[in-house]
Every structure is written in structure tokens, then in C-alpha cells.
Design brief:
Layout (H helix, E strand, L loop, with lengths): L1 H6 L4 E6 L9 H15 L3 E8 L7 H4 L4 E6 L13 H4 L4 H9 L4 E4 L17 E5 L3 H11 L3 H21 L5 E4 L2 H10 L3 E3 L19 E5 L5 H16 L5 E5 L3 H7 L6 E5 L3 H10 E6 L9 H9 L2 E4 L7 H4 L3 E2 L3 H11 L6 H14 L2 H11 L2
Parallel strand pairs: 1-2, 1-4, 2-3, 4-5, 5-6, 6-7, 8-9, 8-11, 9-10, 11-12, 12-13
Helix pairs in contact: 2-16, 6-7
Amino acid sequence: MYYFWILMQDKILNIVAFDNPYPPNYGGVIDVYYKIKALYEIGFDIHLHCFVKEVPKECIELQLITASVNFYKTEVKWYHLFSSLPISVISRAQKELVDNLVKIDAPILFEGLKTTCLYNDVRLKAKSKYLRYHNIEHNYYKGLALSETNLVKKFLFWIESNRYKKYENTVLGGFKSVLTLSNADDYHVNTIFGNSVLVPVFHGNSSVDECLSEFGEFTLFHGDLKTSDNLKSAFFVIEIFKKIKNRKLVIASSSGKEIITKKIEHLQNIQFIELQTNEQLKELFTNAHICISWSFQKSGTKLKLINTLFQSRHNVINQNITDSQEVIGLCHIVASSSELVETINRLMEMPYAQKELIRRKKVLIEKLNDFQNAKKLVEVID
């Protein structure tokens, strides 16, 4: 404990975020927000720099856990289409960011490759720089291209994927450490650059819900339906519940209402709920008997799975959702639509047992503990 106290003396950190992390309502920003919160709680002074489409009028929630907050507008120009850099990188090339980073004598943690356009600016040469590696971006955009049905978007995703593959090779070696989220990403970075450290995802859950009854009421699928992979997965799950009309499915999202309601308008056993608040989602977790997490592309561990493991009952996943063997051991993993139908029918009749709760508490509090992972991050950053 004394060693950790010594580590924490005068700890200041710049964090450059690809988006406003509040509210923490989708995968990437959940990790950013709860990382900032955990670092604040162990004594860090965080100077936060956020790229946003629109600068918010206020940011009280962020100001409460940071020493300062600066916003920079993401600007996509038509001529970015002809750049060799990924559009999501060059659209964040704001020199004001460097002006502000220079003023603060502290290391810099870049959240995702999207934020790194100016990481090599000569004025930042003396600073220790670290990268939070959220995805193998070229694989992520390739997956989006495969899932996308709009031909223009599909083409743009393919371009972005190819640009990220080249871009990554030019920048990853320039960071003191790359902080990865998953075993696959950690292996990928270490194999090529040898500078990776695995720091699991930050998620904001401090305890596993011990008050759940043995049975919930329905199967839940939730996610951001603006993402083509999530939308494709929602359509897939809808097709499953067409085959088991005696089972209820709830699809919950803050987006996609029109397209999903049209898809399910004649299906009495499927309901769409438009999410407005985190409390609303938590209530759905409490009432769900099964939570399905499904993806047609690999991209580390999905945050929605972590939340349901802490807050709900049975979890059904496919192999793309996580590569953590400890987490997989807490789930029912299936590989086909026929297996999914069989598993849903079986689990809806199976109580959520006390032994399952005990297993979750052991794994999740040990392996996915925000406080412990903040301490691990502190030991990496000098």
C-alpha cells in the first residue's frame, strides 16, 4: 500500500478522447469515462481533451472528476477523401490540442488511434506518450464493410480499413506503451511492436447484483443500432424469435426505432423499447432472464456483455463477443441459429442459481475490477 501511495505522488495525466465520454452510453466511451473516474478516485489530476461533433453547453459531470476539460470539434472535409490517412484520424487534426497539451507537464494517454493525428508533433517530443488501443481498427472497419448494406457506406468502410492498416504500422511503435483491451489485441501489438500491456476494460460496475430472483420475464438484446454490425445482429435475433413465438424478445436501443418496429410489426412476441436513460436499461437487465450478445465481427470484449454479467441473469454469446476464457466460462456460447433456439428454450426454463452468482463474483471482481485495473495503469504510466 505504501508503494502505491509513493506512485501516486503528484500524478497528472493528459487524456485525449475520441468523443465526449459523458454520458457513457456506448462501448468506447464507457471505457474512457470509467477509466477517468477510477483514476480520479485514486488521486489523479486528469486534464481531459475531447473531440466532439458539437461542443456541449456544459460538462458538469466531467468537471467533477477532472482538473480541466477542453473540447475540439471533429471536422470532416470533402478533401479528406483523398488523404492517405483514415478520415476518422485526419478529421481530429486540431492544432489547438497540441497548444493545450504543451501547457501541461504530464504524460499523454491517447484514447484510440483516431486521436493520434498530431501525436508526433515536434512540440510533444519530450512527453511520454501512451495509446489506449480500443480495436484493431482495420479489422473493425472491414467488419463494418461486410455488415453494411448501403453500397456507399460499404465502400467508405473498405477505404477506411485499408488506410488504418497502413497507418497503424507507422504509429504504434511511437508509443512508450500500448494499453490493449483483449488477449487478441495484446498478441497482435506485441507480435509486431513488443510494447503492449493488457489492461482490461473499465465499466463502472463495482459489485454483482445479488438481489435477482431465480426467473426473469424475457430475452433481451440491446446495442447501438446505428452500427451496422449491431443492426445485422438484431435482424438475426429477430429471425430466431420468429421460430420460437412462445418466447418473448425485447430489443432495446437509443437508435433504430423506425427500422426495428417496421421489421417486427406483425410479430406479437417481439417488442422494441427506445432507451432514454441508463436507469431504464438497468431495469431491463433486472427483468431479463436471458441476455443475448451477438456479433458478426471480432473486436475485443463487448461492454454490453460485461454489464449484463454484473447486472442480469443468463448470458448467451457467440465466439466474436470476447476472447477472455474466464468471461466465456460465465456464459453459454453457441455457434449457430439452431443452437441458439435450443439454448433459449432450455434457459428460459432454468433458474438463475446461487452457484452462478458465486462464480461471477469470483471472476468479475478479480479480473474486471476498475480499481485494480487503475492501479495497473498507474504502474505503466510514468
